[in-house]
Amino acid sequence: MREPGLPTLDQLRVFVAVIDCGSFSRAARELHRTQSVVSYTIANLEAQLNVELFDRSKRKPTLTEAGRALLADARTVGMKVDAMRARAKTLAQGLEAEVSLAVDVMFPNCRLVQALKAFQQEFPTVGLRLRIEALGAVMHLVGERVCQIGITGPMLDFSDTFQHQQLGHITMVPVASPDHPLGKMTGIIPTEVARDHIQLVLTDRSQLTAGQNFGVIALRDWRLGDLGAKHMLLLNGLGWGSMPEEMIRADLESGRLKHLQLAHMVSGQYSLHMINRVDEAPGVAGRWLMQYFVDHPPEAEQ
């Protein structure tokens, strides 16, 4: 058996497009080619690799076992080339005019302020656009190219669209006002008791987490799009919920809020990740800002 030949990048992109589009005809429309050209390209790729990628006995393109194994390789090659081209583009352009950043609402404000001040001092001529969002909204903004860099939470899987690295975590604490029925209880609070009281829950303006509930156990909940509003309602005894420890530390120390000893959760870790699109590498200033966040993780001592 002869050795496999060297496939072209175009052949690999057509291969991936057929699978992503679901048919040869749709891939042809997506690639602005005729269906016969797409079919010819796939046939040449199979000849180069010396394997059959598709089962021709079925109407819809169905991968063979070899095709499934090689599809992941084809995607990886495409992503690596996209990343290299994006990086080359930023190197050729030099210092960018603007950096856009989307940050999860749970990220500590003090850390964010430090990063923004350091950025402005390092790059006084580079504009900075900032969005603060909850849950899947950060990933949505980066995925839709509204923002170049995102700091997002733990609740979503990262697709091949994104490069990502873990930034650390923050501690989430379930709390209520001392005037709230749960705040008046001592010892471990059973889950069935907490379930009977309104839980204040942060909601998502994107559709990426639609239908998903993260840590919601109550039979009744109030959905809030703003962490400050949630904080205000907690202080006024209008429900219970989890908050970043850094944000409510003074409230716990002064007694304005009480740490609830829930049977199902005493405290939890909320992991944070930094993301950017594979095909849009940040420029010089953007990469500096990303490295600053890596060097100053949210859980480090102030």
From TrEMBL:
<keyword id="KW-0804">Transcription</keyword>
<dbReference type="InterPro" id="IPR036390">
    <property type="entry name" value="WH_DNA-bd_sf"/>
</dbReference>
<dbReference type="InterPro" id="IPR000847">
    <property type="entry name" value="LysR_HTH_N"/>
</dbReference>
<feature type="domain" description="HTH lysR-type">
    <location>
        <begin position="7"/>
        <end position="64"/>
    </location>
</feature>
<protein>
    <submittedName>
        <fullName>LysR family transcriptional regulator</fullName>
    </submittedName>
</protein>
<dbReference type="Pfam" id="PF03466">
    <property type="entry name" value="LysR_substrate"/>
</dbReference>
<keyword id="KW-0238">DNA-binding</keyword>
<dbReference type="Pfam" id="PF00126">
    <property type="entry name" value="HTH_1"/>
</dbReference>
<dbReference type="InterPro" id="IPR036388">
    <property type="entry name" value="WH-like_DNA-bd_sf"/>
</dbReference>
<comment type="similarity">
    <text>Belongs to the LysR transcriptional regulatory family.</text>
</comment>
<keyword id="KW-0805">Transcription regulation</keyword>
<dbReference type="InterPro" id="IPR005119">
    <property type="entry name" value="LysR_subst-bd"/>
</dbReference>
